[in-house]
Input
Amino acid sequence: MPTPPAYASGITPGITPAYALVATDLDGTLLRPDDTVSARSRAALALAASAGARHLVVTGRPVPGIRALLADLAYTGLVVCGQGTQLYEAGAGGGRLLRSVALDREAADTALGKIEAEVGAVFAAVDQDGVDGVTLIEAGYRMPNPTLPAQRVGSRAALWERPVIKVLVRHPGLGDDALAAAARGAVGDLATVTMAGPGTVELAPRGVDKGTGLAVAAELLGIGAERIVAFGDMPNDLPMFAGSGHRVAMGNAHPELRAAADEVTLSNAEDGVAVVLERLFGTAEARQPGTEVTPGTSLV
Output
């Protein structure tokens, strides 16, 4: 894919911030529990921008699930959506989908059958491809985030009527970690299995994840991995961490992500993203004594 001229450089001329790209997950990370971005986090993102750094949203949500939020943030530029399956360009006059990787629907249906052979019946949902794709849920599936819209279908076959980017799986009894482990063992090379949040085990196209999406966006922006600071809370953020120079887990993060982080900040309810951005991009005078967090230490 050719590099668009607008993305020839991710750094403001004459300014060299420690990090040129701030990559943030949304749910459980930048978003507070009520699905909003606080005034403090908005100010911290503006502080990073004034220092020459770009903000890149890297989310498991598909494009239709984030457009209203992006508009509220007056966010423009690249967005990694759908666990890395979509690269979207948000703009004041409307957005466009630059790249999309669909999940083979036959393989997805086979994968669900293999999972059910291991753990019994599961409930499934899909995110359709495209900027106007719909989230479809079969009977028994409960959306982990009730603020996101979904349409119920009468049969599993109806999930596959249009191209999809990923499948969401829930089990009536197994916890997320156990379901994710069982799914990885059952699915093999049919799909990439990840845990994206409470009640959210997902199947994406094989070899596609937040890390691959981040890499594509960073290349277009002309920013190396060492100049990326990434924030996340769930195991689906691990590939994003692997492609970043500094990795920050939220105080509410899954233990796997905390173990892979360079530092642990406060929770999303406590504006943990803002705490770190204020430290990284604020002036020396603005930094409060005792708030520095060195790699391997924690604020919680």
Notes: Residues 1-15, 284-298 have pLDDT under 50 and may be disordered. Residues 105-119 form the longest helix (15 residues). The chain is about 30% helix and 20% strand.
